[in-house]
Amino acid sequence: MNNSIVDKNWWKDEVIYQVYPKSFKDSNNDGIGDIPGIKEKLPYLKELGITTLWICPIFKSPMVDNGYDISDFEDINPEFGTMLEFDELLAEAKSLGIKIILDLVINHTSDEHEWFQKALADKNSKYRDYYIFKEGKEEPNNWRSIFGGSVWEKVPGEDCYYLHVFDKRQPDLNWENEEVRQALYAMINRWLEKGIAGFRIDSITFIKKDQDYSSLPADGVDGLVSCKNKTRNRPGIESFLSELRRETFDKYNCVTVGEAPGVPYEEFPQFIGDDGYFSMIFDFHYADIDVESGSDWFKRTNWTTAEFKELLMNSQHALQDAGWGANFLENHDQPRVLSKLVKEGFRTPESAMGLASMYFFLRGTPFIYQGQELGMLNAERTSIQQFDDISSIDNYYRSIEEGFTPKEALDFVNLRSRDNTRTPMPWNSSQYGGFSEHEPWLAMTEEYPEINGKSNSVLEFYKQIIDLRQNSNVSSILKRGSIEFLTDVSDNVVAYERSLENQKVYSITNLGTNVEEVQLPKAIDKILLHTHELNRTESKITLLPYQSILFN
Ligand code: NOJ
Ligand code: CA
């Protein structure tokens, strides 16, 4: 960093790549990706141009939810490697100029965490109050967990239940207990002392529960109601989040990316403003356009491009008004974007490039999920037995319970399954895609012999867009400029202007399936990027479906 001037906003200039460790690269051929595998692929990431890695949970875990169930916050899952190997990864990344952020999962732990084990073993132990236990013969209320069924699980041999917003093997921590909070802060600070650059913070809007624990009218045939109404972004959360920031992140020049679903735009200033809880947050308003809620996959929508564009514009405006956003197309909970946002018959490498160009230059820090840069597609599965993800299995049976046929249920799950993006990374066309020499823990996608990291036009395009944002003469505009949408275009066209000190860059993308003619906002000086063959005059450009252009 420059002399003594510390740039508190350094994270605005990053390009962040998300690694799902179980599926990135297997170094010891047991079929499971690992930390040495990530280290082996650092040169690939360097060449791609990314500056920060976000690694999904690598901590000790029984892997019920693939690491989002932590049994020891300060140890590494042996499947992934050792603390020494993590330290080596951190050092090697540093030498290449790549920072590392980790996943911070502090709403819940695994049921195998020592705290929970002690809480279960002795009802008079102080650890009972580390979690949310309620005495009684019946479940305390009708809240439905995010992964299905009641949020309450009976304690064996007692008239007592404990609460889990996610799986029953992910008991929620009791944030009302000061000792719990202090223990978490100390753990966070130890990781930051180690030299990681920050955290992506899991499910953080769930830490405060309505203390009345009262039932609500059912919203499903199971007689239950989504627990989100009583456990997500509830009043009182502000004091926990302020304290979290004050006791940890504030003491370090680190980045924090909040996974903060359920926050209305009016509250964005509290979350990401100058004194906000986090550096940036993910906004899910348009990511979940194809379903009514991210957890009920049978409630599909008939979304239109016009609606998508409206949500995207609202999101960018809200983020700009309040602070900074984390822009993404994919992650480990979402389907592949080419399958989700592009209509059948158009799912080509060029369309993958069009989507990339559309989102990458939005105002905010861009995130790339592993394999997105290859233009990967969803992995279609033919029976529920082929799924690993707990949420897929729950959604399948819940759909049937709601009256859909098994075939319909499987279709919903194929469209939305979190296993779509969790398939092993295909590095080449060899057996198991060069991910491993052993059969991987989850089957590869069908297309891997063609779509892989060996020779791939989408990958080359990603290198280009990263280079434009990071190292070109328009970098400062693309990184720090403001955003304004052009309104004089068809509903299917997303067009925006980035500007900084009177310098401007324009991005225009056709997100529809028809050819679109667009009146240019100004005569083109230089075409910085384009995805399909160009067809233009001085004043107009004709865009094919999913074609995108960047110019100034
Ligand atoms: C959000 C994570 O992204 C997801 O993968 C996980 O299952 C839940 N939080 C619970 O930790
Ligand atoms: Ca391995």
UniProtKB/TrEMBL annotation:
Stored InterPro entries: GH, GH13_cat_dom, Glyco_hydro_b, O16G_dom_2, SusG-like_C
The highest taxon in the source lineage is Bacteria
BP GO annotations: oligosaccharide catabolic process
Q: Looking at the keywords, is Transcription present?
A: no
Q: Which part of the chain is the Glycosyl hydrolase family 13 catalytic domain?
A: 18-422
Q: Which Pfam families match?
A: Alpha-amylase (PF00128), SusG_C (PF23915)
Q: What UniProt keywords are attached to this protein's entry?
A: Glycosidase, Hydrolase
What Gene Ontology molecular function terms does this protein carry? alpha-amylase activity
Q: Which family does it belong to?
A: Belongs to the glycosyl hydrolase 13 family.
Q: What is this protein called?
A: Glycosyl hydrolase
Specify the species: Enterococcus alcedinis
Q: Lineage in the entry?
A: Bacteria, Bacillati, Bacillota, Bacilli, Lactobacillales
